[in-house]
């Protein structure tokens, strides 16, 4: 089976022609809430479903969110920064729960992740983060010095790194297919090759214009 995004989803990509129905339509921007609410909506894609990085990324699932806690605290405040960073911690468990609840076959596994340092300065930054994780945002991690790196990756190119044992992996194409089936089962019609040309607020919703 070829897992190219354009092929694995080909049996599901028959979509209505929005231009024949309306050039303006109301559209909730967050698909997650569309599914949870069980209210039919029409998410639109500029290209085909699963195009680009949606199905062609490395499939790594972590807890990290950028910018850092320090940067977010400076931009907002500590409480807001804590909330944003906690979303990353909660997202990993949410994805796992969703995959299990919906029986999505996407090769999900908690395999851990090795974060390699490209230079000594990066290794020291990882070690400093390991020792001084913000309270309430601690994650399990283990430092691996360069001399012991071969037990994780067979190269001397990096200067050591850190192991994050709770991180996971999945097949992005199969995961996307599972989400698409789940959404369509809830009555969502996904419209491909239908770019948004303008977005306007309409009360608590948005009005999206398409060609």
What are its keywords?
36% helix; FAD/NAD(P)-binding domain; 3-stranded antiparallel sheet; 2 domains; disordered N terminus; alpha+beta; 211 residues; 13% strand
Instruction: Give helix and strand order, one letter per element, not per position.
Output: HHEHHEHHEHEEEHEE
Number of domains in the coordinates?
2
Gross morphology is globular
Structural class designation = alpha+beta
Low-confidence stretches: 1-8, 11-35
Q: Rg from C-alpha positions?
A: 21 Å
Physical arrangement of strands within the biggest beta sheet: 1-8-7
Give the proportion of residues in helices.
Answer: 25-40%
Average of pLDDT? 80
Largest sheet: 3 strands, antiparallel
The N- to C-terminal Cα distance equals: 35 Å
Explain what you see.
With 211 residues, the protein is α+β, with helices and mostly antiparallel strands. The protein folds into 2 domains: 1-56 and 173-211, 3-Layer(bba) Sandwich (FAD/NAD(P)-binding domain), CATH 3.50.50; 60-170, no CATH class. The chain contains 8 helices and 8 strands. It has helices at 5-8, 18-21, 31-37, 53-56, 69-75, 78-101, 120-131, 172-185, and strands at residues 24-26, 60-61, 113-116, 142-144, 161-164, 168-169, 198-202, 205-209. The strands form 3 sheets. A 3-stranded antiparallel beta sheet has the order 1-8-7, with no helix packed on it. A 3-stranded antiparallel beta sheet has the order 3-5-4, covered by helices on one side. A hairpin with a 2-residue loop joins strand 7 and strand 8. Helix 5 packs across helix 6 (78-101). The longest helix is centred in the middle third of the chain and has 24 residues, at 78-101. It is globular. The model is unreliable at 1-8 and 11-35 (pLDDT under 50).
